[in-house]
Amino acid sequence: MSNIIKKYEYAVMATDTVLFALDDGKLKILLIKMNKKPFVDMWAVPGGLVRGDESVEVSAKRTLKEKTGVANVFMEQLYTFGNVNRDPFGRVVSIAYMALTPNIDMEIKTTKDHKEIGWFDVKDLPVLAYDHEKIVKTAVSRLSAKLEYTNIVFQLLSKEFTMNELQTAYEIIRGEKLDKRNFQKKILALDLVKKLDKKTTGQAHRPANVCTAKHEGVVNVEIL
Amino acid sequence: MSNIIKKYEYAVMATDTVLFALDDGKLKILLIKMNKKPFVDMWAVPGGLVRGDESVEVSAKRTLKEKTGVANVFMEQLYTFGNVNRDPFGRVVSIAYMALTPNIDMEIKTTKDHKEIGWFDVKDLPVLAYDHEKIVKTAVSRLSAKLEYTNIVFQLLSKEFTMNELQTAYEIIRGEKLDKRNFQKKILALDLVKKLDKKTTGQAHRPANVCTAKHEGVVNVEIL
DNA sequence: TCAAAAGTGTTAGCGTTACACCCATGG
DNA sequence: CCATGGGTGTAACGCTAACACTTTTGA
């Protein structure tokens, strides 16, 4: 691969995807372990080169699936990283995506080139290959920002959730506790969720109302 | 160029820059006229291929300068457009930038390949080549959005300006009139401008106070 | 019966908006 | 002196933030 890239007169492109999930009160991302020098045993965000016959977005989905087994998750373009020396194998520009899943227990797989894969707390990351630390930081800060003016948070929750799960998602990402009553008032005022005729069961406390998002996709929604 | 691109197994990259300025109560962008089929006589945003030895941002600055003569303007990455068929000459992905200048009277030049160049009201654009209409729309909506949570507006004003010029910039881009007293209160509360010991002269009405931005660059600033 | 989380309203303070008159200058 | 835009304050309203007790369940 490196020979192919080096001989190009112009830059070629890759995609890298930061996949987020909530777990255990933490915001986590999915990383794979590198084998290749000079990054042996360093972790990286899954990615790969964009082929001549696929769109950038398709490429991001394909490489995420090939490297991790993950498919059918929400994805959104993040930023394009284009420094000259970001990749020691050649002149590669990376179009970074962020992806969100409600399901940290989804099946993930390793590959021949990446024998380990795992979820890492964004507040406690290992050393990352390439400029992936910068990519991850950009993704985390974009995600926080989008919490405030979109309904993107629902991409991190199951179809059905409780007000408390929703509130906890905000608390984890914003890093601060919120008031239960005020939180519920705002969410209801924004008209983003429906309360279902359904309660949680099996917990040693009062059952909670089950809710669902009113809209399928991600939309802008001043203001939380 | 098309032959070079076609033989690549992977996608190559270009940058395109939407340069904004305010003029005559309108938000305008700088366009150049194409000669090449199938875009003969269509207008386009200035851009060009990213070389193997330059960063993406440097490439955007270089191509803007080469195609229009414009240099030393504020630039910021916008979005990356990666559909397969966006360029009939080959598999080219475009990293779009937006640029802002306070000075619509700056010198601009044509080139061998682009014999015409000019400023166009974003509300009255000609037919654009490639997917440049999409790029321009993305740029306009990003600019509007950033007005609300950054001090980016100062990149469209001279170093020294009056409160009225500042307010007019907001009014043009937001497309609505604002209240003079409330506007001034907000701006002062945000502590974004200094009033200078200086007045405008030569106008057939009371002189206005001259102001300047407190910060050099673009920063986030909840909320206008 | 105990522990744990769910559900639920009111009040005070702050920020936002609406609004009108006099002033300084050039022509 | 006239036309033009510049400069300035207050009051009502709405939104936000602070705050605590009762309910329901499983163990």
UniProtKB/TrEMBL annotation, chains A, B:
Coiled coil: none annotated. GO terms for molecular function: hydrolase activity. PROSITE patterns: NUDIX (PS51462). Residues 13-143 form the Nudix hydrolase domain. The keyword Metal-binding does not apply. CDD domains: NUDIX_NadM_like. Keywords: Hydrolase. PANTHER family: ADP-RIBOSE PYROPHOSPHATASE, SLR1690 PROTEIN. This is NUDIX hydrolase. The lineage of its organism: Bacteria, Candidatus Falkowiibacteriota.
